[in-house]
Amino acid sequence: MNKTLNNDFKEIINGRRSIKSYDTSVKISREEMTEILEKAMRAPSSINMQPWRFLVIDSPEGKAKLAPLARFNQQQVETSSAVIAIFGDLNNFENAEEIYSKSVELGYMPLEVKEQQLPRLASYYAAVPTEVMRDVVLIDCGLVAMQFMLTARAHGYDTNPIGGYEKDQIAEAFGLDKERYVPVMLISIGKAASSGYNSVRLPVDKVTEWK
Hints:
The chain is of the alpha+beta class. Helix content is 44%, strand content 14%.
């Protein structure tokens, strides 16, 4: 049976563009940015540990600090309403008790399930190699990053993901522990100053196999 996509959702998906320059007169309030982040954080994550950590760089001082670390994306840093730096927290299991207790309180999880799972998970997380946890947080933060961009689009804003920046320096530059917080990507956000660039996608049958 054919199903038609909701027109608003279709516009969000098909209308997203990679934007290099933004309207500098447009500012996003912290209240609205918080709402966008809250919606983005509905993304799934491994055992719901939500390892993403956001650094919202929206002040002139913050952008000045970021600029030399993202020197190939100066225009986006300078003109955007904000740049969101997404990090993955390798110590994300520290929030397990809070997350699972709240799940029990809200009736999402039986108490006995929490009491069975948490000790087993604690043993696993205590022994998991850093490189394995790094892979986990990169995947989870990739999910929240895409959801952030789609949510921003639904709020009427444009975005662009940025991978070209000094990943080995950004955590320390903003006072974060670089051994704990893994840089994932930057996302610029604002109102596009132009229509941006469309891009080609390969056909589904070229990248898909059916078994």
